[in-house]
Design brief:
Length: 144
DNA sequence: CCCTCGCATGGTA
DNA sequence: ATACCATGCGAGG
């Protein structure tokens, strides 16, 4: 998992209002055994907790695939609802507060769905993803 | 060919 | 049993 940064810009999941650059005390806080971080986008004062983290499978770490399987419960709880099996653009924050643009979709599965983030190539290279690593998605919000 | 896409399958919890 | 998800695998480009 990425190490906490002390000079990041972070947005919380609910804050859609743009570029109100309010300076909070910077830095990470430990809460419920997981890293959390103050929202820096607006004055809401919310604490952003990583939405999920997972141990990367060999497939998750495969550069040729460059996509990440999202645990279903997390996908349905925190990601935008999907009206069909089409990918939608989505922004996510990594645990350093850096923003990335991916695509979110599901695959129809036998009587269910599998959720994936696609287009992770640059991210995977940047994070040096390896199978067995644990990485976390800090926040996610739909593109405007 | 070889790669990507879109699911299907099957191991595992 | 039943659901989830890691990966297999065929079709299409």
């Amino acid at each position: 998992m990425a190490s906490p940064s002390s000079s990041t810009t972070t947005f919380c999941f609910q804050c859609e209002d743009s570029s109100n650059s309010v300076t909070f005390r910077n830095g990470w806080r430990l809460r419920s055994g997981k890293f959390a971080q103050l929202c820096h986008r607006c004055a809401c004062g919310r604490v952003v907790t990583p939405l999920f983290q997972k141990s990367l499978s060999a497939s998750d770490a495969d550069l040729a695939l460059s996509r990440l399987v999202i645990p279903k419960k997390c996908a349905e709880a925190y990601f935008p609802p999907l009206s069909g099996p089409h990918k939608i653009p989505i922004n996510i924050l990594d645990t350093d507060g850096k923003e990335w643009n991916f695509h979110f979709r599901f695959w129809p599965n036998s009587r269910s769905k599998m959720y994936v983030l696609e287009g992770l190539r640059d991210y995977m290279v940047s994070k040096k993803w390896q199978a067995g690593d644990v990485d976390a998605i800090a926040s996610v919000y739909a593109s405007p």
